[in-house]
C-alpha cells in the first residue's frame, strides 16, 4: 500500500495515516506528501510541508526509517508530460515489482497528480495497482469537487485515458465520516505522544483562525478514513495463493460497479455505457472505521507517558 495525501491541507489526512500505520493487515510501503490547494504560512511549499508532517508522524510512532516519506509532484501542466517526483516514481517502482503477487493499493486522499504522472512515466502500471480515491461527486452535474480541483488535468487523465482499477469514495459518502471533538479528546488525545500531537494539530487548525469564516461546531469530518477501512478492514485478506484484489471488500460498506464516467474539465462528468467498470461506494461503515481506530490507539498506546 502507498498513501498519497495533502497532509499540509485537511487535518483528516494526518488521522488516516496514523490509522493505516497501526493496521497490521496492510504494509505501508511509502507515504507521499502531496501538494495542497492552500496552506496558511506555506503558500509555495505545501508538498514540502506535507513531507515534514509525515516525518513527524513517523518519528512519534517510532517508525523513522521503517516507512519512506516521499515528496509529491507539482501540478500537471500537460496531459502528455508527467510531473516527476519521488512520489510518482515510487508508484511506478512498487507497481512494477516482480518479487510479490500481492495487490498494490494506492490510497489517495487529495489530488491525482502523482498517479497520473506515474501512468505517463510507465503506462504498463495501469493494471498493476488499484486506486482508492477520496474524491469526485456522485451527481454528474455537480462541478469542481475539492480533490478534483487540486489537479483537474490529472483526474481527467486517470479516468479518461487509462484503464486503472478505481475504488471511488465520492463527496456524498466521505462527508458522512463525522466525529465529535469530544470523541477525539477522549479516544485519541490520551494515547501516546502521537495521540496528543494529533489532537493538538486539530486545535491548531489554521482555518479555524481565518477571519470572516463561519463558526466551526463540535464535529470534524474525517473524510480520508475510508482509505483504511477499504484496504485494511476487509472480510478476507489477499495472500500469495489467492492474491485477487477484486474480491476484497468490507461487507458493511455498500458499493456499485458502474462504467467509468468521462470527466469534464469543470469537474462534471458524462456517464458512459461501455468501457471498464469502477467501484463507486454508496456508504461506508463509519462505526467499524472509527471504533477500530480508537481501539488501536488504546491497545498500542494505553499507559504510554504523555509529553509535557
UniProtKB/TrEMBL annotation:
Xref: InterPro entries: Inosine/uridine_hydrolase_dom (IPR001910), IUNH (IPR023186), Ribo_hydro-like (IPR036452)
Keywords attached to this entry: Glycosidase, Hydrolase
GO cellular component, one term: cytosol
Domain Inosine/uridine-preferring nucleoside hydrolase: 78-205
Gene Ontology biological-process annotations: purine nucleoside catabolic process
A molecular function (GO) term: purine nucleosidase activity
One Pfam short name: IU_nuc_hydro
Hydrolase is among the record's keywords: yes
Keyword flag Hydrolase: yes
PANTHER family linked: INOSINE-URIDINE PREFERRING NUCLEOSIDE HYDROLASE, URIDINE NUCLEOSIDASE
Protein name, per record: Inosine/uridine-preferring nucleoside hydrolase domain-containing protein
Protein species of origin: Novosphingobium endophyticum
